[in-house]
Amino acid sequence: MAKFTKMTSPLYDYMAGHRSDRDPLLAELVEETESLGPISMMQVAPEQGALLTLLTRISGARHAIEIGTFTGYSGLSIARGLPPDGSLLCCDSSPEWTAIARKYFDKAGLADRIELRIAPALETIRAMGRTEQFDLAFVDADKTNYSNYFEELVPRVRPGGLILFDNVLWGGSVIDVTNTKEGTRAIRELNDRVRDDPRLESVMLAVSDGLTIARKRHASELVSRS
Q1: What confidence score (pLDDT) does residue 224 get?
Q2: Beta bridge mates, 201
């Protein structure tokens, strides 16, 4: 028997309003991003940012990578969860949007632990060795490449590390069989691949537009499951 509370807009607002962080700098960033117009919808929700910070902290992550930075809200959220000697590599292809991110990284005093690379993210990732070098990865970029990001990131995240995918509910269209748009099909493919990959254990949460949290298993866990 399914056990869940049906989510309504007032109930979601109640839930989102009970996060602990209330940061004036992040509120300022939200306001500046909203001034960009409809494109501001690409920014993660504040409750999702709070979750990113919490997951970074409780996972003990020191080295993180973000695919899709936009104006910097998610990057700031992850960086704030890192220890002082931690590092975050932000990958984005837009100098315009990330100029805002750079400004807020500086304002937050976190620029020393954030590296921003402007280039197609797959090129940036593939230029690295396929070694376990990240403790946490967050993906919020072009949906048609989600499966490609998945395949490139799993080998580069350490056992016990986290891989997070945003927009996995895609406005609810993932369960609409009449929706065969490329982006929707890409999200469905990614969701199935994460669920079925024996290297990972995962859960999908109905936060904002859906967030999948996947943990990479240790080799001993893979043996025990075989």
Answers
A1: 63
A2: 215
Task: Classify residue 198 as exposed, middle or buried by CB count within 10 Å of its CB (0-12, 13-18, 19+).
Answer: exposed
The residues near 225 (Cβ < 8 Å, ≥ 6 apart) are: 198, 217
Token output for 42: 């690409």
Q: For residue 141, give the nearest of 204, 81, 90, 82 by alpha carbon.
A: 90
Element (H, E) at 75: helix 73-81
The secondary structure of 150-202 as a DSSP string is: HHHHGGGEEEEEEEEEE-SSGGGGGG-TT---HHHHHHHHHHHHHHH-TTEEE
Quick check: is 28 in a domain? yes
Instruction: Identify whether 130 is part of a domain.
Output: yes
148 in a structural domain: yes
Helix axis angle, 146-153 to 182-196, nearest 10°: 30
Cα gap 226→223, rounded to integer Å? 5
Whether the model pTM is above 0.85: yes
Token output for 191: 């969701």
Beta carbons of 90 and 114 less than 8 angstroms apart: yes
Residue pLDDT, tens place only, 46-91: 999 999 999 999 999 999 999 999 999 999 999 999 999 999 999 9
Give domain status of residue 14, yes or no: no
Rg over alpha carbons for the chain, rounded to the nearest Å, is 17
- CATH number of the domain residue 149 falls in: 3.40.50.150
Domain enclosing residue 91, as ranges: 23-225
Look at the chain and report how many structural domains it folds into.
1
